[in-house]
Amino acid sequence: MELPKVLIRTTLFFAVLLSITFVGINAQAADKENCLMCHKYKQIGRIDEQGRKMSYYVNENIYANTTHRNVPCRDCHNYIDKLPHDPVTEEVNCANECHVKPPFSKENFSHKKIIEVYNKSVHGLHESDSQELKDAKPYCKYCHLNPIFSRMDEDRVGFEKTLSRCLNCHERKGVTQAYKHITHRLRNKTSRSPQAIVQLCSKNCHANVPLMEKLQVSRESLESVETYNESIHGKAVALGSQETADCVSCHATSSIHDIYKKDNIESTVHKDKRVETCRQCHKDVNERFVQIDVHSGIEKHEKPILYYTNLILGFVFYGSVGSLLGLMLIETVGRRRDGILWQIINGTSWRGKKKKKKKK
To answer: Which residues in 231-282 belong to E strands, given as ranges?
Structure first.
């Protein structure tokens, strides 16, 4: 029995109406000061002094589902003191204090502690840096724009590692409340996969050889991505491993942002800290173990023994594989010559009877 067309149309109408209503509620809840009254229009923008077209459009639905959905706009854009506001000339400072109080905390939330760690790191801006270097360094949005959330098994959640990250900002108090607060963080993997981290560090920075040469980095740094990809770590990550060390695993602590040059005593890859760093994955680590060069380039003129050893092992491996394939080919030709057909039936690939040799 078919439903009347009027009933179908009425049902569809109310379904669409409810969808629009709920979407509107989410977006409105995210925008506490009604900034989207203007910024929800796709055409909003201007031409700047350099002739570039600047878009000020904010997608309501995307904004309502971002990490900052409960943060008032002017917590970040705190230089705005009137509406409609004047043209924006200042950049957002991620160290600003928000009007959001996390659970078990008496202070308003702020990224200030992480910003301080970042500013001291090799990626932070320093007075001695050239303008080119300052322009090339990654800023907050370079890494944190549009994070991907993916579900994962609770057995794979690194509780200790996750909690150690929480302690970068929060005091070691109110454990029960803290656990309730970060349950979503434990059950939803919000950090990037090893593959994504390697791609993030490589794509526009460390694998960009012209840029690295322009910044006059060392030869070791210039080849760091290539040598990592050739290492056992790089190959395991390329094959999809979620446990193998990526860039952050070795070059930063649980603070993530404290990456330093290897000669800096604070660096996790400093000669005095390599044992501790390697023990995160390898249990039986000693001073001899950490002498292994993770980013080793195998050049004939620099490391002839390693070069020729690698060459011989490669010849043995590919020679063995090639020999096996050759034997398979010879066997196939011989069987076909004897009249045996190559057909995959019931789990076997050979059918027929061997020809009897004629007696002379």
So the answer is: none
CB 154 within 8 A of CB 186: yes
In angstroms, rounded to a whole number, what is the distance separating the alpha carbons of residues 190 and 157? 11
Local confidence band at 63 (pLDDT 50, 70, 90 cut-offs): confident
Of the candidates 170, 228, 153, 163, the residue with the CA atom closest to the CA atom of residue 194: 228
Which tokens is 304 given? 């002839």
Q: How far apart are CA 30 and CA 37, in angstroms?
A: 12
The pLDDT of 291-300, averaged and rounded, is: 79
Q: Round to whole Å and give the CA distance between 92 and 77.
A: 6
φ, ψ of residue 66 in degrees (nearest 5): -90, 170
State the virtual CA torsion across 104, 110, 116, 117 in degrees, nearest 10.
50
- The model's pTM: 0.65
A 10 A CB-CB count for 38 gives 14
| Tokens read off for 275 | 């044992």
Report the amino acid identity of residue 34: N
Mean pLDDT of the chain: 79
